[in-house]
Write a structure and sequence with these properties.
CATH superfamily: NAD(P)-binding Rossmann-like Domain
Number of strands: 10
Shape: globular
CATH class: Alpha Beta
CATH architecture: 3-Layer(aba) Sandwich
Structural class: alpha/beta
Largest sheet: 7 strands, parallel
Number of helices: 10
């Protein structure tokens, strides 16, 4: 039985990735920052083939623990970077775990024999740190794909800046190590929507959907989204997991970074669909997904389908 290690495998996206690999006959090792917090991963124990699931405590800032985690894996997926919008200390909350964690991870996999494939879960911020606003020099209606020049700004949200720098770190590692014994590929999802598999209430992705559904603005950043009726490129969480599974199990994708995106809607239309009402405007395709369709044979769900099915579970 092949084994996949999924850093962040009990999170919003990670849970769906874990399910995909279990369903396809893999042994799955999932990391937890605090193994005593069973509420963070207990939902995975109800999955089919959970007998092949292992949970290990891990901090990406601990080199020894990282090396141990990846030591017996055929495939490794790194999705363990924090997604935080309400940031008090960007350095300790975002930059250190995201960038230093990526550097430590790259060192660990380089020194581990037997790994066949590595997949990084990056972000649309790896291409444009202004998201959901347009990249510099573009308008809201200009399309964006993997051939476009990456854009970053020191004025962007710290989360986006951290993800951008981490992706640059991965790209430099690939350039500096042309003779790796394994492939590295990345995926960069836009705004990820859908229903969480867990009952946790601390998911930023599900929390943001809840805010939009109820037109709640806890801070100036969210209020500005409503005031400007900002448009979001959206992708279903199930499609992100499917694309990651395909990326991890398809050879010949070394060095590629796939934008994962479906349709783009304004935040007012997102609010309608999250309340099971039809949008007023037709969707646009702003962040293009042609490369993922071609290389991964992906077909992305309509946004309306995943927003209609959203549920925010409260205890």
């Amino acid at each position: 039985m092949k084994k996949v290690g999924i850093i962040g495998g009990s999170g919003f996206i990670g849970s769906y990735i874990t399910k995909a690999f279990l369903d396809n006959g893999y042994g799955v090792k999932v990391s937890a920052t605090d193994i005593t917090r069973e509420d963070k991963y207990q939902h995975l124990m109800a999955l089919n083939q959970a007998v092949n699931l292992y949970v290990s405590e891990l901090s990406v800032e601990d080199k020894v623990a990282l090396a141990d985690f990846v030591s017996d894996c055929d495939i490794v997926i790194h999705g363990g970077t924090p997604f935080i919008l309400d940031v008090k200390d960007p350095q300790t909350e975002l930059f250190d775990p995201t960038i230093i964690g990526t550097e430590n991870f790259l060192e660990a996999i380089k020194n581990t024999p037997g790994i066949e494939k590595v997949v990084f879960i990056a972000s649309v911020a790896a291409w444009n740190t202004n998201f959901p606003m347009p990249a510099g020099g573009k308008s809201f209606t200009d399309t964006f794909d993997e051939n476009d020049t990456k854009f970053t700004s020191p004025a962007s949200h710290p989360y986006a800046q951290a993800k951008y720098i981490a992706n640059q770190t991965v790209e430099k590692f690939i350039q500096d190590n042309p003779n790796l014994s394994f492939e590295i590929s990345s995926v960069s999802p836009v705004f990820v929507s859908g229903k969480s598999m867990s009952n946790r209430e601390d998911s930023t992705s599900t929390g943001l959907q809840f805010l939009i559904k109820n037109k709640i603005a806890p801070d100036d950043f969210i209020q500005a989204l409503y005031d400007n009726n900002v448009a979001f490129a959206i992708v279903a969480v199930e499609d992100v997991a499917k694309a990651i599974y395909k990326t991890a199990t398809t050879k010949g994708l070394h060095g590629k970074n796939y934008l994962l995106s479906s349709e783009t809607y304004s935040i007012s239309d997102m609010n309608l669909m999250l309340n099971q009402e039809d949008p007023k405007e037709k969707p646009a395709i702003i962040y293009k997904n042609d490369l993922a369709k071609k290389d991964l044979n992906m077909n992305f769900k309509p946004v309306k389908e995943c927003l209609f099915n959203f549920k925010y579970i409260t205890k």
